[in-house]
Backbone:
């Protein structure tokens, strides 16, 4: 469904017991987790209810609905999505699928790094987008099980550097909802589990500006022919900006995911002009 | 450089003798062949001059220039590009790189099918975009050298069905310059060599409308996360429309190339609305 979130959601749902599957699952998400849970539920024959904000990207709302999930809309300014989800969970005896802070979600997300290492063979470093930390935790565990020397890097939006600050402080920090074009990385604090794994396994977390995310999206469009949403462009942005020290000349893998974005918004972010820059960059 | 044309151009240039390389190469093209020759020349240290129309897509002009080629612009309505190119060839003793009707160009283009068959293993059919016939001729020869039972299909724009009509007639037909969004498939007649190969090896040629090309581009954007220019979307369009008889349930490979398009034009063709349709299509 155009983002790594499917991997965690599918792994979570696949491990549910038959009586849990019958009662369905619930998730809250404005985007890729919603689609991931909806598609995994459809494939496994489980009913899914997703609590989504009214301002979620239309392309993500549409896809979630088309995968067959029931959507419960709420207004960000008026309601608490977790409360709405928990109420449905209690009423129906359904299972809540957490967005990232869960061992099954982390393990599922880690399969992307396994496939990357299968395809690319030995890597010196892996760079991933960083929101709540599910992907970086799974990536770190998967990669280090195969080779402890692989350096793991996370890339956050500058406006939402809760993970970088938490690692610096040595404890989980909570920030305000970050204002960034990376709608998939608007988390306000690391997960408990994902933070513990990151402290042990992650080499560094770097940040990129919205302008740098946009430049990376344009590079992906013009030179890689890949549609990447702002959140997914974070690792590419960090690499194009030389933001990660000490990896020049090394074999570096980047997990560039997802690619779910409204056509009109994509067009606005690409801009009208022909992307410039060295075609050999 | 975002299109299969590089393969033929590189193969052609790589087979030039040292004295030919020193005198440089010349090509005429409004798009992907221009970029392919420019990049191949740069990689092989050969100087390249490309004759391009003033209305060539800006992204293709920019890339050709950035690859280091000298560009000679002409107005479509006022000048003949072949005459301009041949004049430069004579004056400099340079070598003209033909866009498709040449054994070296055909052989280079055929490497895409070789890689497709390496990656996808046994296929029942391969579907390719069809302009002058370089790609379909190379695809057919490469595929049939490995397995004569693979059905080869070409897809043309409805407005430019010179190849379909030529095969029907049993001889090469020349049409007017077709009005189509597929700027890479605006050829007016099959090549002599490519037509001979196609007559022997191609199962069928089908056509798609500009609207169907646009729908396929939107499908590639929304579901495959791939940036595809109108010409490259032709095989996908034919498959999504069920235009090719007898391949349901078969293992079908499609060569989807290229992806060189101005951001503003891409945005216009995608449209503002969220692509609809079955996400499982």
Residues:
């Amino acid at each position: 469904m155009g983002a790594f979130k499917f991997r965690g959601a599918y792994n979570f749902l696949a491990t549910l017991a038959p009586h849990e599957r019958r009662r369905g699952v619930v998730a809250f998400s404005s985007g890729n987790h919603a689609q991931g849970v909806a598609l995994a539920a459809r494939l496994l024959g489980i009913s899914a209810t997703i609590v989504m904000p009214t301002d979620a990207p239309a392309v993500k709302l549409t896809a979630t609905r088309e995968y067959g999930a029931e959507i419960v809309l709420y207004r960000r300014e008026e309601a608490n999505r977790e409360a709405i989800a928990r109420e449905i969970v209690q009423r129906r005896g359904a299972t809540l699928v957490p967005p990232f802070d869960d061992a099954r979600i982390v393990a599922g997300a880690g399969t992307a790094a396994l496939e990357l290492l299968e395809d690319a063979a030995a890597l010196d470093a892996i760079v991933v987008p960083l929101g709540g930390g599910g992907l970086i935790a799974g990536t770190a565990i998967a990669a280090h099980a195969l080779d402890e020397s692989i350096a793991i890097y996370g890339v956050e939006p500058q406006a939402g550097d809760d993970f970088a600050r938490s690692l610096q402080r040595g404890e989980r920090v909570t920030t305000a909802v970050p204002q960034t074009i990376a709608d998939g990385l608007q988390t306000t604090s690391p997960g408990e589990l994902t933070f513990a794994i990151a402290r042990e396994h992650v080499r560094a977390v770097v940040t990129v500006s919205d302008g740098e995310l946009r430049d990376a999206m344009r590079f992906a469009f013009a030179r890689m022919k890949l549609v990447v949403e702002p959140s997914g462009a974070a690792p590419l942005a960090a690499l194009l900006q030389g933001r990660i020290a000490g990896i020049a000349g090394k074999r570096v893998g980047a997990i560039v995911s997802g690619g779910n974005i409204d056509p009109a918004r994509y067009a606005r972010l690409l801009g009208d002009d022909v992307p410039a820059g060295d075609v050999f960059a």
